[in-house]
Amino acid sequence: MESATRERVLSICRLLYDKKAQDIIAIDVEDKTILAEWFIICSGRASTQVKALCDEIEQKSNEMGLKILRKEGYRGARWIVLDFGNILLHIFHEDERKYYNMERLWMDDLKSAILFSKEEDAKLDSGIK
């Protein structure tokens, strides 16, 4: 992942983590689709949390150097997609996440993914893989 994109992915993941998003994962899909270079997938336990995660990313996107090109699914708050061009953020309600299981569709192995936690964030920032 190029440095600027890597930093943007990590910035989004950090913000989601700080807002209590569940099971945050970033998947490198650059060689699998023309839709984006990275998918970030996370979930919330309730529709209100799903919306709150989306709202927070929207509010902070300019500060992170990100422009939201498209937003889908906000009204229903079961699966919200934010399109940043080379990054697609999928914010699921936990029930929809289990049902659609996007990780299974896009991830061949863990080599193409970042399973995000504060411990993983520290490793990534220091260059440890």
Notes on the protein architecture:
The protein has 129 residues and is α+β, with helices and mostly antiparallel strands. It has one domain: Beta Polymerase, domain 2 (2-Layer Sandwich). It has five helices and six strands. The chain has a six-stranded mixed beta sheet. A hairpin with a 3-residue loop joins strand 4 and strand 5. The two termini are 13 Å apart. The C terminus is likely disordered.
Question: Keywords for this structure?
Answer:
129 residues, Beta Polymerase, domain 2, six-stranded mixed β-sheet
Characterize this entry briefly.
With 129 residues, this protein is of the alpha+beta class.
* Straight-line distance between termini: 13 Å
Q: Strand order within the widest sheet?
A: 3-4-5-2-1-6
Which structural class do you get from the secondary structure elements?
Answer: alpha+beta
What is the rounded Rg? 13 Å
Proportion of beta-strand residues: 15-25%
Secondary structure layout:
Elements: H1 3-18, E1 22-28, E2 38-44, H2 47-60, E3 70-72, E4 79-83, E5 87-93, H3 94-100, H4 102-106, E6 113-115, H5 118-126
